[in-house]
Amino acid sequence: MSINNVSKLVLIAKDEWRYWLRSKLAVTVLVIGLVLTLTSVIVTAITMIELSHTRHELQTTSDKSFVDQPDRHPHRMVHYGHYAFRTPAPLSTLDPGIDAFTGNSIFLEGHRQNSAMFADNRQGTALTKLGSLTPAFIVQTLAPLLLILIGYSAISRERELQTLPYLLSQGTSGLTLIAGKGLALLCVVGLILIPLTVSSLFTVLNGESLLAVASFILGYALYLFVWVLLILLASSVFSKNSGSFTALIFVWILLCIVMPRVASTTAATVVPSPGKIETDFAVKAELRKLGDRHNANDPAFKQFKQSLLKKYNVETLDELPVNFRGVVAGESEAKQTAVLNKFAEQRMQAELKQTQLSRNFGWVTPMVAIKSLSMIVVGTSIETHHRFLRETEQLRFDFVQGLNKIHSEKLTYQDDINRNANATATKKARVSADNWQILQNFTFNSDSALVRAERSTSAFLQLLLWIAVLVGGIKFVGKRLL
Staple 151 to which of 231, 291, 316, 451, CB 3.0 to 4.6 Å? Predict the structure, then answer.
């Protein structure tokens, strides 16, 4: 591009900005957009920081509460349970992602796999389901609307004022005119992205990777660039401002509101997953085959009993060097966990397939592409949530089996079976509180920035395809602009 064309672009952009500054609507919309973005960044950051501190304190309190328990029967501690909390990723201050729906804490106990809880959106009112005013929601949903209100008349206004033939006759090509108007809109995009960029750079101080921050900012820049191109294309096609505005509002409703719902509904329909009640019945049916873990004399453990007696070369349970009831508890927990993990993996695979199917709608709506890209890069996607579930389940299993080991090694079989005989027997069937020092320090970290960047490749390609198609459309229309 020649220097002359560059100067024309700058001149056209400056003229567009002069028009916006004279227009009360444009100035009001621009101020509203900046205030909303800045406010959402500050409020969301404060909220996430408070949540992070709260979860850290709760984790510390939970650990202390567990180890401070008095002398008890080991199996009582299995049911007493323990909490695991997930500290949010640094960039989640800008996009909480699915964490707002799934929760970030799990209660760990024997014989059960509990789901994550204390999700913000589950505890909110019905109005919060429409979308929280997070920075991600502002830029994904409201920023395109603000850009439409500012730029819908970029080219169509010149037609209505009959200044377009004059501009073209002065040696300014249609493509140069559109590019100049686009440059002005890109300056607005830059203003919208400033609060997002500054706040995301602050997350580097909390340990976030520069690669993740760069991917995050680049993704949103590409997304808003798509909307700039859509606005320029519509304004170039329609001869009246009303036609351009109506078309763009329809496109915004279709791409930002309708299509994401269609994507999620289609994914749930094409890849159905069993409901909670159906799954619970199936799990209970499988577990029933394993026997009653609280009854060491259950017929299901007869073969296990014989193999254990043979292993230690003894005739009776009293002669075993370990507590048979504790060994049964450990064996039963291992088998039950295998069953629970099987159903959990089936559920997670179904959720992952649904998510991947809905992400493919990014080829037909940039809204889905940026939502997927944002959650993946930030570390609040379904993949991260599933890894949290798997790691906490391993933590739960190790914690319960540690107590079962104490049960089998620190408590005799006779004391165990007679623990309800009287108060003295009950006291004798307890182990020292020193044995509760079995908890592992649990810290959950997001996937590496490189892994997250690789997962977001498809979303980046979707946005780039949108840009390529729209640029082609603008070139076609620009050469015939009159």
Answer: 231
Q: How far apart are CA 154 and CA 148, in angstroms?
A: 10
User: Between the CA of residue 384 and those of 37, 258, 448, 471, what are the distances in Å?
Assistant: 26, 27, 11, 35
Q: Are 380 and 142 in contact (CB under 8 A)?
A: no
Q: For residue range 95-153, what is the model confidence (pLDDT) as tens digits?
A: 888 887 787 788 888 888 887 765 555 444 444 444 467 888 999 999 999 999 999 98
pTM for the whole thing? 0.87
Q: How many helices (H) and strands (E) does the chain have?
A: 22, 2
> What is the mean predicted confidence (pLDDT) over 316-327?
85
What values do phi and psi take at 82, rounded to 5?
-160, 150
The tokens for 17 are 């900005």
Q: Give yes or no for a contact between 201 and 210, defined as CB atoms under 8 angstroms apart.
A: no
d(CA 383, CA 378): 12
For 435-448, what is the HEC assignment?
HHCCCCCCCCCCCC
- What is the token pair recorded at 413? 């079989």
Nearest alpha-carbon partner for 406 in 4, 33, 73, 178 = 73
Place of tokens 């580097």: 204
